[in-house]
Design brief:
The protein is an alpha+beta fold and about 160 residues long. About 35% of the residues lie in helices and about 20% in strands. A four-stranded antiparallel β-sheet has the order 2-3-1-4. Helix 2 crosses helix 3.
Length: about 160
Amino acid sequence: MPVKTTLKSRILDDKDKKILMILQKDGREQLTEIAKKVSLSIDSVHKRIKEMQRKNIFTCGIFIDPRAIGFPLVADIKIKLKNITGKEKENFINYLTEHPRVIELLSVMGTHDLTCVLIAENTDELDRISTEIRQKHNEIISDWKGMLILKTYKFEYYDLI
């Protein structure tokens, strides 16, 4: 970290990246252990972590495997929208983000506008959810392509070094 640059104004340096890599592997790693691994004081590590959180570089949370909690079906749905107003799109996105079986919703660029990950207990529930969403919003959905996700090999891991 350059001496004259404050933590608040600078971009990520190598120490920050190392801290993020450690936290990615184990978000519960002790500050003392992180400090040893990156050759900083505990206070410096703590300040860096707090500042990165303040800047929304990362948020704390947990990853849940839907299959382990009773949702063996995970579907990736690509949705193409018709020429709609901003308000219609906002309402649709709000509907999906509030839906209890939608676990991810991303705006994408390409042949489709959104990718939506749904979870279900069985094929009947997946069919019901899919049909419900498509019928409720048929006036704005022009295409719907679904794929079942069989296995996750890598999820949200960034190699920063």
